[in-house]
Amino acid sequence: MFEKNPSCIAGCFELRPRVMHDARGRFVKVFHKPAFQALGLEAEFSEEYYSVSKKGVLRGLHFQLPPHDHAKLVYCVAGTVLDVVVDLRTDSQTYGQHAAFELSAEAANMVYMPRGVAHGFYVLSESATLVYKVSTVYAPDADAGIRWDSAGIQWPDAEPLVSLRDQGLPPLAQFTSPFTLAGGQS
Fold this sequence. Notes:
Blueprint: E1 2-6, E2 13-17, E3 19-22, E4 25-28, H1 33-38, E5 47-54, E6 58-64, E7 72-78, E8 80-87, E9 98-104, E10 110-113, E11 117-123, E12 127-134, E13 143-145, H2 164-167
Antiparallel strand pairs: 1-2, 2-10, 3-4, 5-12, 6-11, 6-13, 7-10, 7-12, 8-9, 8-11
């Protein structure tokens, strides 16, 4: 039901669902609990939301701190984005490294992220709608992030449209990570 492609970040995958086409258009199943369980992925999601952003917008790099950290599934239902995941797990061989994916409504591909990573994206199309499924409920006190330009990512634009909040996030080098591969605090 889903093609699971590994990335350089342990536990982070690009998923490609089966897309059904006919004269009316197309149909895409983005989640199926038994299939996710069979693939060893989180299958209990607590919230789902979406963002609509215009070309040149960069959102991120965001995450929630333990005990409210979460696995996340993201996909585009309109437009195209450069989606990026940064490993924040201190005992990971890829700590501080990132994986990038081009997500689009046309490709219907998704990114599955484990707990302990930061997430951000840059809008490549005129606008994009990105859907997020997360395994924990949003906790404002646990909401955190690192600066978008501090993890060695080659974004398409050196001066993207970034929120004031995201401009004020600490750089990766100044962030003391509480994350580990086991999902516990370090």
